Amino acid sequence: MRRRRVPHRPGRPHPVRLNELQGIDYSVVERRGSVATHIGPARTCIGCRARTLPSELLRVVVVDGTLVPDTRRRLPGRGAWLHLDLDCLTNAERRRAFPRALRVQGPLAVDHVREHLEQHEKAAGTSLGEE
Predict the structure, then answer these.
(1) Which residues pair with 63 in a beta bridge?
(2) Are the C-beta atoms of 52 and 45 separated by less than 8 Å?
């Protein structure tokens, strides 16, 4: 199947810059509201759908039918990314995003992830309260 080429509108800057090999230069990709710099790989939070750096997200994987946090990002298997925020966990549960992102059938137990996020928020609240 041949891909349809989208015509470039004259007078508007082309949103993608090509490199010398006529490939897309991913270091500069202009999107509405984005910063025109490439700072590394991006991951999408399955709770709020925001794209950000992996260092700002928690990787979660399925181990024996249970969702577990992968804090070292070394566990095998397909992973999903989530902000360290209980609201994002709630949104992901409500949207049934975990089974879809991890490509598993049926609902998943999120107790370990919830405990991890509650401990993280408690530690963050404690450190803010000391200041």
Answers:
(1) 66
(2) yes
Comparing CA positions, the residue from 119, 47, 51 lying closest to residue 89 is 47
Kind of pairing, strands 57-63 and 79-83? Answer: antiparallel
Q: How far, in whole angstroms, is CA 70 from its chain's centroid?
A: 14
Specify the pTM: 0.66
H-helix or E-strand spanning residue 101 = helix 97-102
C-alpha span between 61 and 128 (Å, rounded): 30
Mean pLDDT of 78-95: 94
pLDDT tens-digit profile of 27-75? Answer: 555 455 555 555 678 899 999 999 888 889 999 999 988 999 999 999 9
